[in-house]
Amino acid sequence: MEMEMEIEMEMEMEMRSTEDINIATDITPPLTPLSFSLHNTHLHTHCSSCFSLITPPPIPIPNPNNPPIHYCSLHCSTSHSSIPLSSAEHHLPSSSTSSLLRTALRLLLHRHSHGSTRLNHLLTNRHLLTSQNDDDVAETVRLGALTMATAIEKQNGCSKDGGTLEEATVALCAVLTNAVEVHDNEGCALGIAVFEHAFSWINHSCSPNACYRFSFSNSLLSRESKLRIAPFTQNSKQPQQIDSGVFGSSSEFAQEGREISGPKLIVRSIKRIKKGEEVTVAYTDLLQPKGTRQSELWSKYQFICCCQRCSSLLFTYVDHILQEICVVCGDLSGLRSNYKFFRDMTDRRLTDSIEDVISEYLSVGDSVSCCEKLEKILIEGVDEQLEGKAHSQLTLHPLHHLSLNCYMTLASAYKVRASDLLSGDSEIDFNQSKAFDMSRTSAAYFLLLAGAAHHLFNSESSLIASVANFWIGAGESLLTLTRSSGWSKFLNVDLVLSNLASDTKFKCCKWSLMDTFRACMLNGQINSQDFENVSNEFIHSVSDITRNVWSFLVYGCQFLKSCKDPINFGWVMSKQNSLDVRAHDIKTGMCYTHEPVNSIGFRGEQDYNDHTVTHIFQLGVHCLTYGGLLACICYGPHSHLVSQVQNILDHKNDFLFS
User: Fold this and answer.
1) Does residue 590 sit in helix, strand or coil?
2) 6 band by pLDDT with thresholds 50, 70 and 90
3) Is residue 577 within 8 Å of 333, Cβ to Cβ?
4) Are the C-beta atoms of 638 and 523 separated by less than 8 Å?
5) How confident is the model at residue 1 (pLDDT cuts 50, 70, 90)?
6) Fewer CB in a 10 Å sphere around the end CB: N or C, the chain?
7) According to the model, what pLDDT value does residue 2 have?
8) How far is CA 190 from CA 38, 62, 66, 184, 358, in A?
9) Cα 627 vs. chain centroid, distance in angstroms?
């Protein structure tokens, strides 16, 4: 019997739906962590129990042995303060203490072990994580476990014991395998947490049907949502009965109305899920190409992803596009025969160049240099030469994952440039004019990023969380542009406000996006068919509006001028200059030329008119509303991001020349 139990516990577990689940549905109640810890950088500013920001920050008390611990309330202190003392973490040397080791020590407090393969029902992956002597992960486990074992022995007042080191190794491997990064409402990584099997047994997919969010409230757990999943072993037909042990389950805690410390986690569907279907989430960035995802998953978790997206015989359209290299000029014959070699070589060179620029920007803060260097890379790419043949100029496809990274950085950098200009005291009129140009370019990059990601989202709906953030960013930047004082130099402000007030088509909002967003806010759910319909209406609407303002937004930026349409990417499709002939089996090949293009009817800065700002305002509201709808699907109606969108929409008219 013991042998059968050990074999069963070593089998890979998965969580499946116990009912048909619609899109935008909470799959679990708020789950509480088994173990958790803030990162060292946040120990002075956040509550060590619920991870909420402490305002004002507490005055730190120096302690040579271990970092300080602070709480936001008596409740948090009462529920959590005994854990650091009991876990032996105060015996960790200051040079070694980390959220990883603290979390592993805390996990051992109520250990419920099943040999070396599982701890508290959680897979440890110990054999994989420790089998490579020269591997960085194996070295991290070896040194970390030794440090933990020493701290435990000091706590217990005993001599070195092989059993203590074994326990420390198992706990550390369990944390490395199961811990998730806990992010605040702004996306900042606060710490790590290990959750019970209701979450930790949810497997990874590069095309997942669920995502998760965090809650930092220390109030009673919600009794409204229920656990809609159950554990199964692979190929089994019946759910596995798991003894909850000393921890119980979060759903049981919720029913008892108990208050528990730690950041909460809720799993939510982003697709329709049939009864009996496996529920999956993403462990990595889905906007990275297959090779990068596989490398990261192996490095962190020691497994090779075999999901449908990764197992496809040919690259999916999204994975093909995310790494596509384009030929601006040169001989294609030699390049096609060595496509993979030149693609990988070009990708490495461009990756190194872009990462160097972004790293320099983050460390030095020179936004002007960052913009110039990144746009030069986007326009010029790299030159390659085959033996005995002319140079070929290779560049990134506009939807390449590095291009998306550049758009994101450029949007931020131009925004910073605008802010820096407005904060200057000299040449106020000149600075306001330049700041207006920088804000305009920033908004264009935000819109290009959102449109590019949405194009990929049409083929891979699991990208919904990223797309939500990008549309919200585009909406905010466009509305911020309408607030700029730079408009007053060219426009009759009173006339613009009058036009907006009389714009009955926009005011009545005959398309259903706003109504759908409000309905989703009200009940937290949306019908799949309604979502598809409103998405189609949204793209149609923003395409129409964008045609009226894109050439204005990109004026003065050579790279953006070459991007003819940020919503419809048909302009990059052509069979002539594709490197990879196999791509034609997936989608038509890609070519891309950087030809400065001015749309018909736009003659330059003299072509400002009263309708331009009206269209930008409308476009901003559309983008923000749709992004809010996507965020509501991913994170629920009460999430911080959705509340942020709702607040802006409630005061959207404040963005006009305020």
Assistant:
1) strand
2) very low
3) no
4) no
5) very low
6) N
7) 36
8) 6, 21, 18, 7, 23
9) 14
Highest-confidence segment of 13-17, 56-60, 204-208, 523-527 = 204-208
Neighbours of 10 (CB within 10 A): 14
For residue 309, CA distances in Å to 60, 193, 294 come to: 49, 28, 12
CA of residue 631 relative to chain centroid, distance: 12
Cβ-based neighbour number of residue 169 at 10 Å: 23
Percent helix, strand, coil in the chain, to 5, is 55, 10, 35
* Main-chain dihedrals φ then ψ at residue 565, nearest 5 degrees: -155, 120
pLDDT digits (tens, 9 = 90+) for 478-533: 999 988 877 766 666 566 656 655 554 444 344 578 888 888 887 878 888 889 98
Token digits of residue 295? 């490398």
Question: Is residue 355 within 8 Å of 292, Cβ to Cβ?
Answer: no
Distances (CA, A) of 359 to 292, 352, 354: 19, 10, 8
**DSSP helix/strand/coil, 87:** coil
Count of C-beta atoms within a 10 Å radius of residue 85:
11
Residues across the chain: 658
What pLDDT band is residue 601 in, cutting at 50, 70 and 90? very low
According to the 3-state scheme, what is the secondary structure of 435-475?
Answer: HHHHHHHHHHHHHHHHHHHHHHHCCCHHHHHHHHHHHHHHH
The token pair at 440 is: 């305009």
Taking 60 as the threshold, does the pLDDT of residue 248 lie above it? Answer: no
Give the DSSP letter string of 341-371.
HHHHHHHHHHHHHHHHHHHHHHHH--HHHHH
Q: Tell me if 89 sits within 8 A of 97, measured CB to CB.
A: yes
d(CA 484, CA 482): 6
Residue 642: its pLDDT value, please? 92
Domain 1-30+196-311 fold is Beta-clip-like (2.170.270)
Burial class (CB in 10 A: 0-12, 13-18, 19+), 360: middle
Span 39-48, pLDDT tens digits = 999 998 999 9
Nearest to 440 by CA among 466, 467, 421: 421
> In this structure, what token pair is assigned to residue 640?
């911080």
At 596, which amino acid appears?
P
Burial 377-386 (b: 16+ CB within 10 A, else e): bbeebbebeb
- Which pLDDT does position 317 carry in this prediction? 93
Radius of gyration (C-alpha) of the chain in whole angstroms: 27
* Residue 262: both structure tokens together: 């730690």
Backbone angles phi, psi at 195, to 5 degrees: -105, 165
Longest dimension (CA), the chain: 84
Is the Cβ–Cβ distance between 322 and 397 less than 8 Å? no
Query: By the 8 A CB rule, do 463 and 211 touch?
Result: no
Domain boundaries, the chain: 1-30+196-311, 33-181, 320-655
**Per-residue pLDDT, 260:** 61
In this structure, what DSSP letter does residue 57 have?
P
Q: Poorest-confidence range of 69-83, 113-127, 146-160, 366-380?
A: 113-127
At residue 311, what are phi and psi to the nearest 5 degrees? Answer: -85, -5
Report the 10 Å Cβ neighbour count for 42: 20
Which amino acid, one-letter code, is at 427?
Answer: E
pLDDT tier, 236 (very low <50, low <70, confident <90, very high otherwise)? confident
Q: Decide if 463 contacts 633 (C-beta within 8 A).
A: no
Find out whether 190 and 51 touch, Cβ atoms under 8 Å.
yes
Strand-strand pairing, 210-215 and 382-385: unpaired
Most trustworthy range by pLDDT among 122-131, 235-244, 384-393, 494-503: 122-131
H or E segment and range at residue 255: helix 250-256
| Residue 145 three-state SS | helix
